[in-house]
# Entry
Amino acid sequence: MVKPVFYILLKYIRTMKKNATIFILALVVAISSCQKTGVVAKKTTYELVGEAKVVPGNYGDVVKETAVVTTATLVQKVEASGTFTGKVSGKIKEVCTNKGCWFAMELPNGSSMRVTFKDYGFFIPTNSQGFPITIEGVATLSETDVETLRHYAEDQGKSKEEVAAITSPKKEITFEASGALIKAKS
# Structure
């Protein structure tokens, strides 16, 4: 009688070992499937505020130089449809002197396009004026209110008189960039 109880107990222990092994394997598979795959996010390593010792580089999302349009093509598309999504290359005309949270790019008609960064997620070096740049994002034809224009003028270091002289909104092309590739000066 003791012998059958022993065999039943032994069979139960073996079954538990198999179940434990299966459970552990399932747990390993579940955990490994939650791990990051080899796909790396398209964010760059340039996280800075202020001047940079080396300005050229990728800021924000990685920008590849494919399907890039000129500022003339950008203006044409925005004027035709009110918006443009894609990449454009140009030159940095001026930069926010506080922390590089926006910059201006010269347009073919002599005006400037203000470029801000999506979700205030990255900045460019405050000493990047004059560098060639390719940006990716969305351009829109918009009207900038007086308060915002005054804020931008303060960021540029304009005098109180120059800031106070801004009294009317400005219709302009603005660009919200998700990424920027600053190239070396040639």
About this structure: The chain is about 30% helix and 30% strand. Strands lie at 57-60, 68-69, 83-95, 102-106, 112-117, 132-144, 170-182.
